[in-house]
Amino acid sequence: MIALSFDIEEFDLPAEHNKQIPLAEEIAISTEGLIKVLDLLKKYEIKATFFSTVTFAKSSTTVIERIVNEGHELASHGCSHSGFAVEDLKVSKDALEKLGGTVIQGFRMPRMMPIDESEVYRAGYIYDSSLNPTCIPGRYNNLCRPRSIHRVNGVWQIPASVSYPFRIPLFWISLHQFPLSIYRFLCNSALKKDGYLNIYFHPWEFYNHLDREELGVPEFIRKNSGDRLIERLDSFISYYINKKIPFVTTQQLLKKGEI
C-alpha cells in the first residue's frame, strides 16, 4: 500500500530565507500547486490525505470542498504553519471539521517537529504522522525512533517512510533529487520491509516559478519543481499502479493494515 499525503499550508518558506511575501500570495502559490495535484490524483482515480492548516483552509474554501467531495481525507496541520501552541491541536481539529464538514482523525506537526502525544490524544485524534525516522542535520535526529506504525500514549504513530536498511528519507526532497529509477529502488526497499509507503509533499513544490528571486528558494528545492515534479509524480504513480499496488489515504492505511 502507498499512502500519499500533502501538507497544504501557507507558502512561508521564503521567511526561512529572510524573504517576505504577502499572505495572499503564499495562499495563491499553494493553491495553484494543489489544483495540479488534485487533477493528477483524479486522472488515476486514487485518494490521498491532505494535512491542512486552518489559515489555508479558511483562505481556500473552494479547494477544501473539492478535496472532501472527491473522496480524499482531510487532516490537521495546525492553525498556521509559522507558529504553534498546544491549544491549536483542538482548535484546528474543530475548525477543519466545520470547514470541511468531515471528521478529522489525523494530525501532522508543521515541519514535522516533535509533539507531545498525550496532548494529541486529548485533542481527540486517532493518529499522528509527525515523525520522520531519519537524521537530517539541523532538522531531525530520529535514527533511534521506530520506523513502522506503532502506538504512543493512545495515538497511532505513522512515521514517514525511509529506505531499508539505511534510513534514507523518501519524503518530498528525495523525489526532487534522485533519478526516478533510484527513487523507486529506495521506495521498493521500504515497501518490502514495512509493507507500505507513507510519503508526503507540499503543493507549493508544484508551482512553476519557484526560481523567482524574491522567493529565496534554494536551488536544491527548485530542482525538478513545478510541472517537472508533476511529471515525476505522475511517473511514480503510474509505475506502482502497473505493479498493482494500491494507493490509500492515511486513515485507510490503518484500517487496511488491521492494526
Would you kindly provide a written description of the structure presented here, covering whatever features stand out?
Strand 6 (135-136) and strand 7 (140-141) form a beta hairpin. With 259 residues, the chain is α/β, with parallel strands linked by helices. Strands 1, 2, 3, 10 and 11 form a 5-stranded parallel sheet that branches. A 4-stranded mixed sheet has the order 4-5-9-8. The protein has a two-stranded antiparallel ribbon with strand order 6-7. It has a single domain (2-160, 199-256), classed as Glycoside hydrolase/deacetylase (TIM Barrel, Alpha-Beta Barrel), CATH 3.20.20.370. The protein has 11 helices and 11 strands. It is globular, with a radius of gyration of 17 Å. The model has no long low-confidence stretch (mean pLDDT 96). The two termini are 14 Å apart.
Briefly summarize what is shown.
This protein is an alpha/beta fold and 259 residues long. Helix 6 links the parallel strand 4 (106-107) and strand 5 (127-128).
